[in-house]
Design goal:
Elements: H1 9-13, H2 26-45, H3 49-59, E1 63-67, H4 73-76, E2 88-93, H5 96-106, E3 111-116, E4 131-137, H6 152-161, E5 162-173, H7 185-196, H8 208-218, E6 219-227, E7 230-238
Parallel strand pairs: 1-2, 1-4, 2-3, 4-5
Antiparallel strand pairs: 5-7, 6-7
Bound molecules: S-adenosylmethionine (SAM).
């Protein structure tokens, strides 16, 4: 268990989601880059990893909050924006193996704080109005809820955590039924399968237009666009 992580029962009792230590096991986190970032992004989800990496290269700051890192692939491939003692990276995840992977990968690069917490459960244990950058990649399609209005607390949490002049970005796989979602046979088969397995995907009701509406409730500046089977967004100017 991460040492500097709140494990108090009140966090768990407020949780909406359940952790999934079998899926996000240390072994699967080790294989995540190869199986998911390299293969699934390319063959199923049609995600352009260069464009996703570019979001980090453009926006990462010395006060960064990473939500749901899995193997921390993109942040790990981002040059540090500050020296080790000046780069603060907070990491929030409901599963412990991704938190430990982040601690390991950021060792010697940043001052790291780990938070074992459900992104749907407010308040987050992170700082408020503090982070100049925040990334939440491929997390919202994993959390329970029939559509983005049911996942709105995660978006509210982002706005509460972000500094007034900070930038938040993310991407999430939208429903195969959404006209904005581009799917091939493999993507449709995987989405169907992962939505049937307990506590893996919950994106049957996730539509890009609803994501945009929820984000607009919390951010005055917003760009949302489709990329393959996902919606990508960059949000700023949190509404208080
Ligand atoms: C599919 S991986 C995304 C990895 C990476 N961010 C990326 O862009 O590829 C989902 C991550 O979100 C975390 N996660 C899933 N449900 C969560 C929840 N309810 N609260 C916080 N983290 C969650 C998982 O543990 C995992 O690290």
């Amino acid at each position: 268990m991460p040492e500097n992580t709140p494990h108090t029962p009140q966090h768990r009792t407020g949780w909406v989601s359940r952790s999934n230590p079998r899926l996000y096991s240390p072994r699967n986190i080790e294989r995540y880059g190869d199986l998911i970032v390299d293969k699934a992004h390319r063959w199923a989800w049609k995600l352009d990893n260069d464009q996703l990496q570019d979001l980090y290269l453009r926006h990462v700051s010395a006060q960064h909050l990473e939500i749901g890192p899995a193997d921390l692939h993109f942040l790990d491939h981002t040059p540090a924006p500050a020296l080790e003692h000046q780069w603060q990276v907070d990491v929030l995840d409901i599963n412990t193996a991704p938190l430990e992977a982040a601690r390991h990968k950021l060792k010697g690069r940043a001052q790291v704080q780990l938070h074992e917490h459900d992104v749907l459960a407010l308040p987050w244990p992170t700082k408020k109005r503090h982070y100049h950058s925040l990334a939440i990649g491929n997390v919202l399609h994993c959390v329970p809820g029939a559509g983005f209005s049911a996942k709105g607390t995660a978006i509210q949490g982002m706005a509460e955590a972000l500094a007034d002049d900070g930038v938040a970005w993310g991407y999430t796989l939208t429903s195969a039924q959404d006209p904005s979602t581009r799917t091939n046979r493999l993507a449709r088969a995987l989405m169907w399968h992962y939505n049937r397995i307990d506590n893996t995907f919950h994106n049957r009701g996730d539509r890009l237009a609803d994501l945009e509406r929820e984000l607009k409730r919390h951010f005055a500046s917003l760009q949302v666009w489709p990329m393959g089977a996902a919606a990508v967004f960059v949000a700023a100017e949190p509404i208080r």
